[in-house]
Hints:
Strand content: under 5%
Number of strands: 0
CATH class: Mainly Alpha
CATH architecture: Orthogonal Bundle
Mean pLDDT: 93
Shape: elongated
Structural class: mainly alpha
Helix content: over 70%
CATH topology: Topoisomerase I, Chain A, domain 4
Low-confidence stretches: none
Distance between the termini: 56 Å
Amino acid sequence: MNELSLLELWNKKRSQVIQAQVAPALVLIGVMVLAALGYFQGATSAAKYLALGVAATTGILAMITQYATIREAEALLVDLKRIDKPSALAQKIAESRSLLSLTAIGIVGLGVATFALVTWAILGK
């Protein structure tokens, strides 16, 4: 692949990570609104577990998608490093492996922390 193709693919991978955050963000907004209004306090256990299951499923699927996209982007960085006479942009992107690794760690860490807070908001008293 040439530099332009790799840069276009890089932008697609970044967009995929961002798009994978949309559905969980909407679910979290819904959970936050319902929790803030106190709807979970009077809800049945089944309703609470359903909300928790939907939040977990949405979040887990998003994390899997984001993690897979990051792994593919790491391979893309290897290809960018192999280009003869890369542009400054290609060089900068090719040097961003540590940032990608940090992003992968952040996705998992923040996902687990967020799920703990969602659990507390739904099941807590």
